[in-house]
Amino acid sequence: MFVLDGHGRYVDFHARDQNLLFVAPEAFMGRTLREVMPPELGEMFMAAVERARTSEETVVIEYELSMDQVRHFEARLVRANEDCIISIVRDVTELRRAAELNRGLARRLIVGQEQERQRIARELHDDLSQRIALLNLEVDQIADAVPVHPHRTRLEKVSSQVSEIADDLSNLSHTLHPSRLQTLGLTESVRLLCREISHLRQVNVQFTSVGVPSHVDSAVALCLYRIAQEAPHNIAKHSQVREASVHLTHERDQVHLQIEDSGVGFDPVVVHQGGLGLLSMRERVGILKGKLAINASPGHGTRIGVSLPVSSSSEARPPSHLSEDRLHSDRFGATAT
Q: Which among 76, 103, 285, 328 is least buried, having the fewest CB atoms inside 10 angstroms?
């Protein structure tokens, strides 16, 4: 714990083990953060001190320092009075490593899930759908060969039911592996998805888009499509409203997806503990080093915001056949979770 004056000067400290300090006390006491920290961190900390000095909010900074190894820290700065800032610092290196390990496991899990979905979709389309088409053709031929009789009427009814099953299989195949992303692109695929959800789930999902490029990295497109697929279904199931909106925009090198409803909302803390849908969204966005913001509270609706780079980096990118996360709170007017 460090005590700073309003100019970012160290005036007191407490350390469980002084060996954990970046520099010895005599090297920082009485000096400012700008003088002690590496230049880029010094400026960042001085700006944080100014924000803490003029606000009642806690200012949180995550940073790294080269010590015995590269170590990661979290500093929380809060104003004690007009000329006193308390900075509580903790070493989060092990937490960061554990998070990276979990992210790696999640990456492999999601990639494996998409591979299995693709396999099942291919089996449905290439095998079962073809067999059902042949069955339907044979039923039609038998019906044509039967004279006008109750049996012919029944065969025609069976043919109609088989056609419905074929359509359902085709829809299921597209849901499991959205090949339309490759042929139609992200914007039109999400537009069709919203139309289908509106029809199937009896929720009016309004879709709009502004400036989204025709080509978006396949991994990024799949991530946004999956979230657009998951969230409206949750709205239909839980929100108790019949209106929702999905909005795609492009700014600089980022694609933004916002999904919103004015329903019953939920408690993010409770859902964070057990909601697999939101957990999957966080992991998908985290894999691509994007940002996710969830603004929800009981009785006040839900707003989900996702921001991803148009092109994913090679280290964060799933295999090419497949097609924490925070958003700045001022973009969506919410605290990110």
A: 328
